[in-house]
Specification:
The complex is a heterodimer of chains A (436) and B (97). Chain A is of the alpha/beta class and 436 residues long. Among the domains of chain A are: 197 residues, FAD/NAD(P)-binding domain (3-Layer(bba) Sandwich), CATH 3.50.50.60; 64 residues. Chain A is built from 17 helices and 17 strands. In chain A, strands 1, 2, 7, 8, 9, 10, 16 and 17 form an eight-stranded mixed sheet that branches. In chain A, strands 5-4-12-13-14-11-15 form a seven-stranded mixed sheet. Chain A starts with 5 loop residues before the first strand and ends with a helix. Chain B is α+β, with helices and mostly antiparallel strands and 97 residues long. Chain B has a single domain, classed as Alpha-Beta Plaits (2-Layer Sandwich). Chain B has four helices and six strands. Chain A: Belongs to the ETF-QO/FixC family.
Chain lengths: 436, 97
């Protein structure tokens, strides 16, 4: 039997934020696009901490939050430094975010499913439960389509957008990345979703029903590993999670979920979550943390890579989904230009890289290009300082008959004992150099 | 500190297991046995779902509980894990994410 050759204008691999954003822009431009997603539905395998900055999404769907499945508008952001039995808080609340939302908490299974329905309504075809295994190539080796796990699942296209996420399986097969991720280029994050009545959340986090707060936590929970934890308020649930470099957890002999339990058992966190928090789901995901130096090539003839697959994460600002959405949009805009020119070769697709370089994505990743290595080589930045800050505040605020002169001396002695004044100045200088 | 059992955590999740196709395999058990012992076999503790268990002789791979993160793939010192995503529609199915 003569098998009909399936052909689309563009194939998108993966229905996460990058792939959906790309498909949305292409479909709206009247381009025939198909999205393959290996999950049962878009979002069923997707996990993130849970903060989605609105700016990138606004550029795709203005005022998306009025119809999208979002949880709470974040109007307060906090940083907590944990000692063993103490806590120092830094926080920022901003009422302008009420009128002009800056970020929302989301649950990805809900949000991605909503976004996918929007993409379908724009005219894209989304095929779930389908894994892309490899690329189809022409005689000269150029990518001309994809091979999926479906029977007769070969699909041809003028261009392929790789939005496969953090594990760069197909990015490597496409030749955009020579080497796989190393254990110092990715963090393993684990997260639990904890049920909490709306009023209890409002009460404990001091917010109203539509509004929410975030907390990032550094310090004693991580047992000396370099790691960042978080607590985010959703509508009727709270997301609690933590991430550490694979390299570090490999050396430590600990398990990722033991660190999560250590976090949940910290007295300050226990106060927030209650005595026996009811867990509804347990999740794990990798975060690409290699930074600028670990990025792959972004394009080649007929192919582009977006989002996590292209290492587009700035974990210091917990930005990732907005990079994914923006790079997906850029990839789509580039292909629209390619359709106009009738040329899908590198010559035209380099527009994608130009767009990335002109945008905040590459500018920010360049700014922090040395940060992953600085943090990796200076674990004392998170091992010593949160504790030191807590002890200093503890001493400073405890009135026990010690004179203030002696108190100051005690604090300085403590700094000397644990790190030394010159190393501390050095640390701060290194950190400043890495983030300036 | 009370550490909740990983079995209890995984029990909360929804999976559609492809019983006939293990998507995670050890390429060569001899490497786990002879070489990786010196490294304490990182897959047995870095995996957030405790998929890998060393019984002294063999590596048991409980792929049914896999969260598809890829940590073992990156952490294995000998690149000894044949790692792929489960077939389309199978594997972890997050309700919330």
């Amino acid at each position: 039997m003569n098998e009909h050759k399936k052909e689309f204008d563009v194939v998108v691999i993966g229905a996460g934020p990058a792939g959906l954003a790309a498909a949305y822009v292409l479909a709206k431009a009247g381009i025939n696009v198909i999205v393959f997603e290996k999950g049962e539905y878009p979002g069923s395998k997707n996990v993130m901490g849970g903060v989605l900055y609105s700016n990138a999404m606004e550029k795709l769907v203005p005022e998306f939050y009025k119809e999208a499945k979002v949880e709470r508008n974040i109007i307060e952001q906090n940083m907590w430094l944990l000692g063993d039995n103490s806590l120092t808080k830094i926080g920022h609340k901003n009422k302008t975010w009420v009128e002009k939302p800056n970020a929302f908490t989301v649950l990805r299974a809900n949000f991605d499913r909503w976004f996918a329905s929007k993409v379908e309504a724009a005219g894209a075809l989304i095929i779930p439960k389908t894994k892309v295994e490899d690329f189809l190539r022409d005689g000269s080796g150029k990518i001309v389509g994809v091979r999926t796990t479906r029977p007769n699942g070969d699909v041809y296209a003028k261009a392929v957008i790789i939005a496969e996420g953090v594990n760069p399986i197909l990015t490597m097969k496409a030749g955009l990345r020579d080497k796989d991720l190393k254990s110092n280029m990715a963090a393993i994050a684990v997260k639990e979703l904890i049920e909490m009545p709306e009023e209890v959340i409002n009460d404990r986090f001091n917010v109203t029903s539509d509004q929410g707060a975030t907390i990032e936590l550094l310090g004693s929970w991580s047992k000396g590993l370099f790691g960042l934890a978080f607590i985010y308020t959703n509508r009727k649930t709270v997301s609690v999670g933590c991430g550490v470099f694979i390299e570090d957890i490999k050396k430590s002999g600990m398990k990722p979920y033991e660190l999560l339990e250590s976090l949940k058992n910290h007295p300050a966190v226990k106060d927030l979550l209650g005595e026996e928090p009811k867990v509804m789901e347990y999740m794990a995901h990798l975060i690409p943390e290699g930074g600028y130096h670990a990025m792959p090539r972004f394009y080649d003839d007929n192919v582009l890579a977006c989002g996590d697959a292209a290492m587009m994460v700035n974990s210091i600002h917990r930005e990732g989904s907005n990079y994914a959405l923006t790079s997906g949009r850029f990839a789509a805009e580039t292909l629209i230009e390619a359709f106009d020119r009738g040329d899908f070769s590198k010559r035209t697709l380099k527009i994608y890289e130009e767009k990335l370089r002109e945008s905040f994505i590459i500018k920010d990743l360049l700014k922090y290009k040395d940060l992953p290595r600085t943090l990796e080589k200076n674990p004392q930045l998170v091992q010593v300082y949160p504790d030191l800050v807590n002890d200093a505040f503890g001493k400073f605020l405890t009135v026990d008959g010690t004179s203030k002169w002696d108190l100051q001396k005690e604090i300085i002695d403590e700094v000397r004992r644990r790190r030394g004044i010159i190393p501390m100045v050095n640390d701060l200088f290194k950190l400043w150099k890495a983030v300036r | 500190m009370i550490v909740a059992r990983i079995e209890d955590k995984l029990f909360l999740n929804r999976y559609k297991t492809d019983e006939r196709n293990a998507h995670l395999k050890i390429k060569d058990e001899k490497i786990c046995f002879e070489k990786c012992g010196a490294h304490n076999r990182p897959c047995t503790y870095v995996c957030p779902a405790d998929v890998y268990e060393w019984d002294g002789q063999h590596m048991e791979v409980k792929f049914e509980g896999c969260l598809e993160c890829g940590t073992c793939r990156i952490a294995c010192p000998f690149d000894n894990i044949e790692w792929e995503y489960p077939n389309g529609g199978y594997g972890i199915l997050y309700k919330f994410g």
